[in-house]
Amino acid sequence: MIPAWMSTLASVGMAVGPPLVYADQAYSIVRKKDSTGFSRDVCAILLLANITRCFFWLGSRFEITLLLQSIFMILAQMALLYICIKNRPSSSPENIGASSRPFAFWQWPTYTQYLEFLAGFILCQAILFLILGRSQTFVFILGMIALGVESTLPIPQMISNHKQRSLYGFRLSTLLGWVGGDAFKTAYFFVQNSPLQFKICSIFQLSIDFVIIGQRLYFGNALPASTLMEEEDIEQALVLAEE
After folding, report:
1. Where are the alpha helices (DSSP H) in 152-195?
2. Residue 174 backbone class (left: φ over 0; alpha: ψ -120 to 50; beta: rest)
3. I need a surface site. Which of 103, 150, 181, 199 has the fewest CB within 10 A?
4. What is the pTM of this model?
5. How many CA atoms lie within 13 A of 190 on its CB side?
6. Signal sequence span per UniProt (predicted)?
7. CA-CA distances (angstroms) from residue 165 to 4, 214, 220, 232?
8. How many Cα atoms within 13 Å fall on the side-chain side of residue 125?
9. Overall number of domains in the chain
10. HSE (CB half, 13 Å, CA atoms) of 43?
């Protein structure tokens, strides 16, 4: 039998811990005025997953702690997204107009466009829930989508690390927060006997975290070669301009 105080402490940790993981990442970006190395797709995954999880809660009514966690995470990611956009590198697809994604998804030039997309996403989910919310099958699928999307959280960062051959710009504190947080929540889900979706997806997410740890050990966190080349090109352009 788990003591009441320990259960309360665990619930508080689950609610506020994951959003706080990104505080140091946000501070680092603001301090350097550069979001290079941190994938904004992380914000996309967390926003879409946690918005969907809120609707899942309306149909399943799991622990209120997990609902609060989603709300806090949405607020945290909205702030982090704004910081990333404000401090995006000069080589970002928005700045050079070279997005390869359909409709330049999640590579839009202004913060307002992200807000408009999220508002539309919430509206669509609300309409679907009003129509199908009484169906247990729909609620189950909604939960699988919410947790399934969230479990892919480390994948964009893993891909970004591989492309850069470096973890430059991705804070070690964020990585450790991912590993520690995902390990904690996996244990929490089993102890609290949370819905199956939470257990499956947390295990998958934790496994990707360990892959990124391997990348950290293998690649290190030095400034990537592509960034160095870009800086050299800028310097050469300035020299030519002066001549």
Report:
1. 154-164, 172-191
2. alpha
3. 103
4. 0.77
5. 9
6. none
7. 46, 12, 8, 19
8. 24
9. 1
10. 25
Angle between helices 41-60 and 154-164 (to 10 degrees): 170
Cβ count within 10 A of residue 137: 8
- Please report, in tens digits, the pLDDT of each residue of the chain (243 residues total): 567 767 777 778 778 888 888 888 899 899 989 888 788 888 999 999 999 999 999 998 888 888 999 999 999 999 999 999 999 887 777 766 777 888 889 989 899 999 999 999 999 999 999 999 999 999 989 988 888 888 888 888 898 888 888 888 888 888 888 898 889 888 888 887 877 878 888 899 999 999 999 999 998 888 776 655 554 444 443 343 344
Encoded tokens for 134 = 């009484």
